Each structure stands twice: as C-alpha cells, then as structure tokens.
Amino acid sequence: MARRIELIATSAFGLEAVVSRELHDLGYHEQYSEDGRVTFIGDELAICRCNLWLRSADRLLVKVGGFPAYDFGEYFDQVEALPWNEWLPIDAKFPVSGKSVRSQLHHEPTIQAVTKKAIAESLKKSYQRHWFEETGAEYQIEVSILKDQALLLIDTTGPGLHKRGYRATSGAAPLRETTAAALVLISCWNRDRQFLDPFCGSGTIAIEAAMIGRNRAPGINRHFLCENWHQLTRENWKQAREEARDLVLGKPKFPLMASDIDDRVLRLAQSNAIEAGMGGDIEFKRMDVLELKTSLEYGVIITNPPYGERLGDSESAAEIYDDMADAFGPLTTWSIYVLTSHPGFERLFRCRADRRRKLYNGRIECQYFQYLGPIPPWEKASDRPEMPGNERDVDQDE
Ligand SMILES: C[S@@+](CC[C@H](N)C(=O)[O-])C[C@H]1O[C@@H](n2cnc3c(N)ncnc32)[C@H](O)[C@@H]1O
Fold first, then answer.
1. Which pLDDT does position 1 carry in this prediction?
2. What number of H helices and E strands is found in the chain?
3. Which of 38, 55, 212, 286 is the most core-located residue (most Cβ within 10 A)?
4. How far apart are CA 270 and CA 207, in angstroms?
5. In the prediction, which pLDDT does 380 show?
6. What residue's CA is closest to ligand 1, atom 1?
7. pLDDT at 357 (0 to 100)
C-alpha cells in the first residue's frame, strides 16, 4: 500500500510559489512553504513523478523528522529515535552532510559526526548488528539546523534537478535551467503564443520554454539517486516514466525564436537544443536586438540581457536597455519579461513594469520586470491566474 510520506521540494529563494503551483498541477498540495522549501505529502510514486516533472525546484527530499535542537546530547537522542529503519536497509550507504544557520549547534563537522553516530545507533537496534558495511544503495542524509530547528532529510535526487542533461557547455553567463523554467512559468506564455528570447546566450530560456510547450518532463532523460532504493519499485518508475512519455504533446503552433548577437553562443545554443531534443522546435538567428522587427502579434519576450555585472560594464548594459526600448516599443500587443540586476533598468528602458519579482540568478539579486500586454482574443484572463509573490505597481493597478 502507498505510504504517506512528508516530502520537501527545495528551490532558490523567491521560487517557492512557482514550485507550489507545479506541485498543485501534479496533484500534490503544499502544506507549508518557507525559505526555499515547499513541504507536501506524497507517496512512493510521488517521489518518481516529482523528480521527473518539477522544473523550478532544485531537489526533492524525504523528511524523516524535525525538532528543536539546543544541545548535542538531546540532539543525539532525538535523531536516534527517528524511524531510520523505515528508509535505510541493512546495507545502506548513508553519508551525512549538514549545515547550520543562526543556531546554538553550529559546528557543522560535529553536527555531521553526531548525526552519523546517532543513525548508526538507531540501525544497530533495528537490525541487531554492530557494524554496517555500507555497500548498498546510497541514502544521502541532509541535516539542516536553522534558528535551532533541526530537519533530518534524505535526498532523493542526487545531482540537482537543474542538471537536465542537455547542457554540456554553456555561454559566458548562463542561467540555471530551473531559474529559466521559472521565468517561463511565471510568464503568460503558452504554446499558442509566439516566443522570443532576443538575448538567448546558450539558449536556456528557449529550451525550457520549448519543453514546457511540449509538456515534456524535464527529467525524462536522466537518473536520480533514489532509483536504487528498494522502497521505489520498478513498477513505480515504469508508471511514472510511461506517464511522462504519454503526456508529451506535438509541436506548438509556432517555432520558438531565439537570437543573439554572438555567433559562438548561438552555435552552443543550437547544440544544447538538439541535445535536449528540442532542436526542431526553436529557430535560432544571429541578430542585434536593434534589428528586431515583426508584424506578429500577442507574442511573449522572456529574456535575460547583460546586467553589466558579469558581462561587459554597466554603461554598455545601459545602451542595450536603451536599444531594447526602441526595439520593443512598437510591439504593443506583446508581453515582455526581463530579468536583470541593473538598478536603473526601468529608467533606461523608459517604462515602469506592471509587476516585479525579486529572483536570484545564482548569488546575484535580480528583479524580474513584467510588462503585460493585452490578452489575445482567443484567451480568457482566467486561463492562467497570476503567480503569487509578484510585487505590483500600485499606481497602474488602481
Ligand atoms: C546574460 S547573457 C544571456 C544568457 C542566457 N540566458 C543563457 O542562459 O545562456 C546575455 C546575452 O546577450 C547577448 N547580447 C549582448 N548584446 C546584444 C545585443 N545588442 N543584441 C543581441 N544580443 C546581445 C550576449 O551575446 C549574451 O549571450
């Protein structure tokens, strides 16, 4: 019988609502979310499905337990008392990694060592053994102590979910696949609308959009750490993978468009798209943003132009934003979404955004500026409710 398992999907700060909506669309419901973690209940199949489908989350973890932790003695007892034998078989390999933030128990190597010992003690009692060889499947234990609250977790994912397997090489300042997917999921783009990224670099946003357009599970071509766990049966994986294959849609109405001024990164983008199986869905073109001209309507631009922080300097970024204002100005029916950390973006682009959202590109704090064009005649406003967590421009809304 399926178990009721407490699961946590982790994400970059600011993406919790996006992950939560993804979970909802998969049929799971958030219990609570905080600081890059969304907690929900699922079963064994949920572990397979969420790893295969979540686009904006970093990892999926099993929550074994959580409790307040102020001293190592009590911490040891609490960890030992958790039901480790429900997860770890007798031959489990169980490395422990730990982090502590603003807590009395703060020495991470000691936290790791005490946790390892407490789990081993727990297993000794369960399996009536004194020694464990750890030659079997890997159960990576993660301890997180935040403001004296300990969480004991087991990673199901292995290499982060952003590792879709299509990006062997990247441009100079690539966006994480999970962040790129989130930009698309926050936007109003759907497979019936034109898509354009005029600063596509290694093509991450276009590739993620193409996969969303095809309803293709981003993890379909990769493996996960928990695939060797005995709790997840072959049948679970078969069912989850078959479902993912069955749900793939045909080509969207229009090819997605991606352009960049730099030939070298375009070649990279093209090979990444082919690797992702999306080569036939995206048209790449060498183009300076200033050359952008189109008579198409109701399209959506989702882009990550230079910030002046990593690529070039602030003045050259300013010139690019000025060019963007000229190029995008005539696109009165389009919606435009721009991720940048440049503090003067709205001034240089000569337009205040309808919505903003704080997001991180790696460690760089950015704003996601959202300019909402009119709804196309074939869509209803209710087709896609707004993603919670956007800051609105009050002057424009009232
Ligand atoms: C921040 S990177 C985009 C990274 C991309 N999102 C990715 O995941 O690889 C910005 C890109 O803008 C391109 N670029 C700079 N100036 C441009 C211009 N005037 N017109 C078009 N592309 C430009 C650069 O070549 C670079 O690839």
1. 64
2. 11, 16
3. 38
4. 10
5. 86
6. 306
7. 96
Structural contact between residues 304 and 336, judged by C-beta atoms closer than 8 angstroms: no
Average pLDDT over residues 20-32: 96
Residue 311 has pLDDT above 60, yes or no: no
Protein residues with CB under 6 Å of any ligand 1 atom: 170-171, 173-175, 198-199, 201-202, 204-205, 260-262, 265, 288-289, 304-306, 311, 320
Give the domains, in start order, of the chain with CATH numbers. 5-155 (3.30.2130.30), 177-214+249-397 (3.40.50.150)
CA distance 322 to 76: 59
Question: Among residues 92, 125, 352, 82, which one has the least CA distance to residue 228?
Answer: 92
Percent of the chain at pLDDT above 70?
95
Has residue 172 got a pLDDT over 70?
no
Pocket test for ligand 1, best of 183, 260, 309 (most atoms within 8 A of CB): 260
Q: Is 301 helix (H, G, I), strand (E, B) or coil?
A: strand
Supply the residue whose CA is at minimum distance from atom 25 of ligand 1: 262
Q: Quote the ligand 1 centre to 261 CA distance (angstroms).
A: 7
Produce one character per residue of 344-378: b if its CB has 16 or more CB atoms within 10 Å, e if not.
ebbebbebebbbbbebbbeeeebbbbbbbbebbee
Which pLDDT does position 391 carry in this prediction?
A: 79
Ligand 1, pocket-test mutation among 167, 175, 184, 199, most atoms within 8 A of CB: 199
Q: What is the pLDDT of residue 381?
A: 78
Q: What is the pTM of this model?
A: 0.95
